[in-house]
Automatic annotation (TrEMBL):
<protein>
    <submittedName>
        <fullName>Hydrolase</fullName>
    </submittedName>
</protein>
<dbReference type="InterPro" id="IPR007404">
    <property type="entry name" value="YdjM-like"/>
</dbReference>
<keyword id="KW-0378">Hydrolase</keyword>
<feature type="transmembrane region" description="Helical">
    <location>
        <begin position="92"/>
        <end position="113"/>
    </location>
</feature>
<feature type="transmembrane region" description="Helical">
    <location>
        <begin position="66"/>
        <end position="85"/>
    </location>
</feature>
<dbReference type="InterPro" id="IPR053170">
    <property type="entry name" value="Transcription_regulator"/>
</dbReference>
<dbReference type="Pfam" id="PF04307">
    <property type="entry name" value="YdjM"/>
</dbReference>
<feature type="transmembrane region" description="Helical">
    <location>
        <begin position="125"/>
        <end position="147"/>
    </location>
</feature>
<keyword id="KW-0812">Transmembrane</keyword>
<keyword id="KW-1133">Transmembrane helix</keyword>
<feature type="transmembrane region" description="Helical">
    <location>
        <begin position="159"/>
        <end position="182"/>
    </location>
</feature>
<keyword id="KW-0472">Membrane</keyword>
<dbReference type="GO" id="GO:0016787">
    <property type="term" value="F:hydrolase activity"/>
</dbReference>
Amino acid sequence: MDTVTHTLFGILLYKAINKEEMSKELKHSFLLTSLVGSQIPDIDVISQLWDTAGQYLMWHRGITHSIFLVPGWALLLSIVCFLIWRTKDRRIFYLGLLAVFIHDTSDIFNAWGTGYFEPFSQARLTFGTIPIIDLTIWAIILGAFIFNRVRKHVPSHKVFKAAWCLIAAHILIQSVQGYAIYQSVDDRYEQVALAAEFVPWNYQVIGKRGNVVEISKATVWSEPVLIRTLPTATNANLDDLFAQNPAAKTLQQWSPFVVVVDDEKQLGIYDPRFFRNGQSFLFEFIDKGNH
């Protein structure tokens, strides 16, 4: 998910806590844990500063998003809260677990994915059933704040707990539909990936078959509609590309599959899941003049 959504998740977590008869120090600890825990896995963005080998794609949403690192982040947040406010409460640790778990797990539902099982597996776990920026989730959260403001007799923590239930239901419905679409086209292609669109219940199916990658629009109520066909030079020799542009090797490892461009001007690869307006923003290449 994007930074705004993760921030909203942190606020929503804090608002869903019943804070009656809670000390000021404990409230501060819960607020810090909710907000920072909802963001801390993305600390990996600083790895751009020392990436000289084109590894950032693997580092971003990599080990810091591992499910096995969740207790470590929660413990760190508990220690920080103790050092600042001298608070000792197991609920801080549990809240940290929940905040980081939600961050890591929500990220596997979009096309970017995460290294959810690192360091034991370098594979990217991605379902592609939720867009990176999900306006439906934003609308649910906004609705919760509006409802909480106009219906003040309803305890606020119950309102925001209900918002979490709606978000979970939305993700479940999106994912069940995406899985059904994936299963319906899996036998048509050698490799398949999904990318959710901004409109709920609408998806792009990206399928590779031989020297062609097809991009189709799909819903569970209709047959996929082909919108673009991309030729891919499957048998091209990519050794020079990887030698001259290490980021290309990383992209090949990171993506479920790539489109290979081998023409008179360029040798390169790109991720077709992010193909928009005639190009993919994840495109690594070398000019044939440097070949």
